[in-house]
Amino acid sequence: MALSRARLSQPHGESTRLLPQVSRLVELPYSSCSDDDADGVSLPGDTAEQDPGLWCPVPPKPSTFSRCVRYLAFLWNLLFLLLGLLLLAVGVWGLLAKATLPGGEHGAPLGSDPMLLFVLGGLGASAVSLAGCLGALRASPCLLRFFLGALLAFAGLEVLGGLLVLLARRRLRDGLRDLLLLCLLRYQEDPDLQFLVDEVQRSLQCCGLRSYRDWESNPYFNCSAPGVQACGVPASCCQDPLDSGSVPNAQCGFGVLALGAAAAGAVVHVGGCGAALGTWLRGQAGAIATGAAALVLVEAVGALMALRVLGDVAAFRAWG
Predict the structure, then answer these.
(1) Whether 272 contacts 207, CB under 8 Å
(2) Are 125 and 84 a contacting pair, CB within 8 Å?
């Protein structure tokens, strides 16, 4: 009888000893993160009061709008990257074409060559657009910040240029006059300047800076020059450069400077290009303002998309 009581009491004692172990197992927190399993078990008192959903937070997935903005930013910068590369290619082609001119005429020095503006503009636009493309594609905060900084720098230069135009119009007018006079002096030396001067004189129907007499300052058109162009003006000054035909007459302006004003007026445009260019610029003020506004809008759209992508990247890394 005593033996049976001892056998009956033994399972009861074992069950009482197992109760604390079961309670400890119940109090152990559940975690689905592999890092928690590898590090060990947390303290029961620290994790029992926490929300089970906070033990292993899941990073937020980007919304459809965020993905669309990211891909649109990539395509937007890709477009301007191609435009920048095209501008760079035109500048390099112009420099190489003038470097291979026959007779050793290489045009203007490299520092004052107009094609250098195309090269520098293409390099700047390509570098900034490439940073925007890679920043949006790779979600790189460093590249996106560089892209935003470059856009802010460009915007600052544009604002500074606008203020200079408004505050220093007379000095800029004098500088433009000196630049046009330099173009007249170096007309035969640089093919780009020659093309630019011919297009201005032909489209505005003008000749020289103040009048057709300004071509006397050119060493090739001066009456004391030994060549056949002495006492002449470019064919772009002629009122009828085709001479009522279909083939341009490159000699229509020869000997004009030796004529009187009335006789010269029957052959060439005697009015200067300075006043005509000023009148044309005032007439194009609306188009210039529209172009400036469009440029600012393009930069603003690119900056807003970059800021959105940068904000999404920062929010994602905050969960890391």
Answers:
(1) yes
(2) yes
The residue written with tokens 């032909």 in the block is 202
- Report d(CA 314, CA 59) in Å as an integer: 12
> Quick check: 70 and 316 in contact, CB under 8 A?
no
- Rounded to two decimals, what is the model's pTM? 0.67
Question: What is the rounded end-to-end Cα distance, in angstroms, of the chain?
Answer: 68
Secondary structure class of 238 (helix, strand, coil): strand
Tell me how many degrees the CA angle 264-269-275 measures, rounded to the nearest 5: 130
Contact call for residues 183 and 218 (beta carbons, < 8 A): no
Whole-angstrom distance, CA of residue 269 vs CA of residue 208: 9
Instruction: Find, among 211, 274, 273, 204, the residue nearest to 239 by Cα.
Output: 204
pLDDT tens-digit map of 137-162 = 888 999 999 999 999 999 888 888 88
Q: Check if the beta carbon of residue 151 is closer than 8 Å to that of residue 124.
A: no
